[in-house]
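Course exercise 7: structure representation. Students receive a sequence record and must write out the corresponding structure in token form. The form below is the worked example handed out in class, using Glycosyltransferase family 4 protein (405 residues). Read each field label carefully; the graders check that inputs and outputs are placed in the correct fields and that the protein name is recorded exactly as given.

STUDENT ID: A-19
EXERCISE PROTEIN: Glycosyltransferase family 4 protein
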Amino acid sequence: METVETNKSSIKKVLFIDTGLSFGGSLVVAARIANEINAFGYQSVVVTPVEKSLIQHHFNDDVVIVNEKKPITYKDKMELADKLAKIKFSPLRKLISLTYNLIEVIKNRKYTAKIRKTIIEHNIDIVHNNNCYDSIKVCKKMGVKVIWHFHGYLNDSSRTTRKWLSQCDHFIAISQCVYDSAAESDFIPKEKLTKLFNPIQSQITQYTKAELNNQKAKLGISDDKFVIGVFGRLVGWKGQLEFLDAYQDFCAQFPKSIAMFVGDDSEYGGYKQQLVEKIDALKLNDNIVFAGYVTETDLHYQLCDLVVHCSIKPEPFGLVITEAMQNQRPIIASTHGAGKELVEHGKNGFIADPLNPKELSKYMLDAANNQALREAFIVSANHFVSSLNARDYAKAISAIYNNVL
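STUDENT ANSWER:
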């Protein structure tokens, strides 16, 4: 078995592997761990396809970022699946699928070779894996322990999934619903499975009234408008289209408002155009702002009077929810997924179904028309979210590492 030299110093090395094509929740959490875990004896290296210049500001200077993208990504496979679904002749579908799988294995050898090289060059002790099966094989051959971080539901019990996940040394689930999906399998031992809610930022930047007004002016938002923020990548399951149905009803009763979409559409092209067309059809052009991908997320949360989380598929966690809370902004969370674990309806926010526009509109109006209620939500939410601090989270993660090593 190929092995790496044991780290002789008191400082150990952890390698975070994330294959997400944009700066999503799994990479955000990796950054928050990496920035804090050095206090518990671990130096961090991160492998990601996201351009370093776009994410460097999220990481401390001592975190090493390695840019590497798989030649064939999950996006490519999703696009292939859509095409295969249109082929009615089953034998042809299977032939194309098998051929593609073989090509994927061959092409992605470059990626696994890069992982192996990174492990050796940085003398890695343990790998924290967000979403890359390919790297498990490399780690096992090199005798490196692997932590698998479930950032989504385990809804696949295929032979491939069983083969690789069963070789991991510990598992972390980001919410109770994600934990349950993993625990229900027959190949994830419960004694190796830990639930840890995602951490908040170590600290946020508080912006002045002048700075907020300046940013509003840049976005074309007048100071008399009630601002509703919708944060997240522009992708179908995040529910921005469904939000527009509720917002149309809200606007009819609360016209002095702006809905601000914060997030990019680089990963799944075409969805923004669907939003633009629907906005035009609903005659909401004067009430919608696209902020795009932003690096100053705190600034944009603080522009909002209300934040709406509107995922239409079960959300594994919902960082938008806790980020809004930390920035002291009232939140309406989707009923689909882990939002119900973070928001206690009527106490620290509202829970609503984005697939029910009347329901979502009602709670948006209830919040917009009641400043005292919004302030009460903020106080209660702040008490909850303070328990999710990144330093304590990193301490819990380091304890898992130490136990595995």
